[in-house]
Design a protein that fits this description.
Layout: H1 48-61, H2 82-88, H3 91-94, H4 106-123, E1 127-129, H5 135-152, E2 160-164, H6 170-177, E3 181-185, H7 195-201, E4 206-211, H8 224-233, E5 237-242, H9 254-257, E6 261-264, H10 266-269, E7 284-286, E8 298-301, E9 307-310, H11 327-363, E10 379-382, H12 384-390, H13 394-403, E11 410-411, E12 420-423, H14 431-450, H15 452-457, H16 469-474
Parallel strand pairs: 2-3, 2-4, 4-5, 5-6
Antiparallel strand pairs: 1-7, 6-7, 8-9, 10-12, 11-12
The structure holds pyridoxal-5'-phosphate.
């Protein structure tokens, strides 16, 4: 089914706009000739009703959490309460300007200050910054802080950052962008950090290690206290990639595990949708010894209860964002945290883990799950055996899911699992939805053995059928 564009349905003379009569002097004549348009633009001419129908139809073709299950591992595509969007659209927040005098936006500064306090409580850290606008931006900021910390001590030899095999791709990238040499740490049989390999790589040239706990395999690093003591013992620091905090919300805190720097993705765990290119926020939280290096300005509470920006910056890494970060995302996170409360956040973490384990338990007899009988908020299955026995690949199964109305899981990541599908249901899904999804996965497994070809042709019930994934990535055609 091909969908006509707004230009395809254009009919000469059917334009539906009416401009108000000009009631100010026409200054266009003052424009230099070379800057004036020579021809009228070829805009689509469509009646108002056709415009409404066209865009309404397009809006129903976009897949989102509001119209279907979206188990995209490591992305936490969960439902975000609409009330938090309402909070972020209150005119008292949207009609202000970031350069307004602090005395006229005390409420906003108060929200930022209190949000940082709440995030400290959630992570077990001492203070932080809300400036970074994405997870990767948080990593960049956190590593810059680590770098400055060592440089100020005169320790110029710590040029390496350790990153486990299963790490999210942004981790080594952020380390490299900060000028560090990236050294990979191998996983052991359990899929956890291999302690012997770690020990062999620690030394006076290591600035720190970046860890996601639970890892992208959905496994909790059980040896985290030993890892922390080994890294600290060698003079390095621990960086916690908290993009996927759902799994431990209210249950465990990176600060208590020994981490020195943490970033969070508010646009996953704290009520802003992840994906789709919308605004995000990747606050960075640190332990006391690193507070002096945080970006400026900081929001401070004065003795009289007022808030102000503190620009003092002897050791600060400087400013890492325009203005103060993505303020409307802070509001949604703040509203979410206040509405959930400590107990609610804990329940959210528990349900995220319970839901993932429910799917794991239903599917593991059929699909191979190489690491772990139990998982945290997500797990990774390998379709290598299915591929060997039937020729059906992870991508074929993903396309089959599209035909059944599901967004596919994350595919082919992490790299240490072959033919990987990484499933993260999140806490917001009901048992019925999880069961329907498991039934679809079981049906696809059956079809793989009975009629593999039909899966190679999938999807057949979507607007666009099987695309050439490589061409689509390398040569995207996004307009006609
Ligand atoms: C584990 C992990 N770290 C870092 C990131 C990067 O976050 P962002 O996409 O906001 O840059 C992600 C994003 O999915 C992630 O899953």
């Amino acid at each position: 089914m091909s969908v006509p564009t707004i230009f395809d349905i254009s009919k000469e003379g059917r334009g539906s706009f009416r401009l108000p009569r000009l009631d100010v002097p026409n200054t266009c004549n003052g424009l230099p000739e070379n800057l004036r348009r020579q021809n009228t633009p070829t805009l689509p001419q469509v009646s108002e009703l056709d415009v409404v129908r066209h865009y309404t139809k397009l809006s129903t073709m976009a897949f989102g959490v509001d119209n279907g299950f979206y188990p995209l591992g490591s992305c936490t595509m969960k439902y975000n309460p609409k009330v938090n969007e309402q909070v972020a659209s209150l005119s008292g927040f949207t009609d202000i300007h970031p350069l307004q005098d602090a005395s006229t936006v005390q409420g906003c500064l108060g929200v930022m200050h209190d949000l940082l306090k709440q995030l400290c409580a959630v992570t077990g850290m001492d203070w932080g910054t809300l400036q970074p606008c994405a997870g990767a931006h948080g990593e960049y900021t956190g590593l810059k802080i680590i770098r400055s910390y060592f440089l100020e001590k005169g320790d110029v030899t710590r040029t390496k950052i350790l990153v486990p095999e299963s790490a999210h791709g942004t981790n080594p990238a952020s380390a490299a962008v900060n000028g560090f040499e990236v050294v990979q740490v191998m996983a052991d049989k359990r899929g956890l950090v291999d302690l012997d390999d770690l020990k062999s790589k620690l030394g006076p040239d290591v600035a720190g290690i970046m860890l996601t706990n639970p890892s992208t395999l959905g496994l909790f690093e059980q040896d985290i206290l030993e890892i922390a003591s080994l890294v600290h013992g060698a003079g390095g620091l621990l960086y916690y990639d908290g993009a996927n905090l759902n799994a431990i919300l209210g249950k465990a805190r990176p600060g208590d595990m020994g981490f020195d720097v943490v970033h969070l993705n508010l646009h996953k765990t704290f009520s802003t949708p992840h994906g789709g290119g919308g605004p995000g926020s990747g606050p960075v939280m640190v332990k006391k010894a690193l507070c002096a290096f945080l970006p400026k300005p900081d929001v401070v509470e004065n003795a009289n209860g007022d808030y102000s920006f503190d620009w003092g910056c002897k050791s600060s890494i400087g400013k890492v964002s325009t203005f103060w970060g993505n303020f409307l995302v802070f509001l949604k996170a703040y509203a979410f945290i206040l509405a959930m409360g400590g107990e609610g956040l804990k329940e959210c973490g528990e349900n995220a883990v319970l839901n993932a384990n429910y799917i794991l338990a239903r599917l593991k007899g059929m699909y191979d799950v190489p690491y772990g009988d139990r998982c945290m908020h997500e797990f990774v299955m390998s379709l290598s055996r299915l591929k060997e026995e039937t020729g059906v690949t992870a991508i074929d199964v993903a396309k089959g899911l599209l035909d059944r109305g599901y967004h596919p899981p994350t595919m082919y990541f992490p790299m240490i699992v072959h033919e990987a599908l990484m499933i993260e249901p999140t806490e917001s899904e009901s048992k019925e939805t999880l069961d329907d999804f498991c039934d679809a996965m079981i049906e696809l497994h059956d079809i793989a053995y009975k009629d593999a070809q039909s899966l190679r042709n999938a999807p057949e019930h979507t607007v666009i059928g099987r695309v050439d994934e490589v061409m689509a990535a390398k040569n995207p055609v996004v307009h006609q």
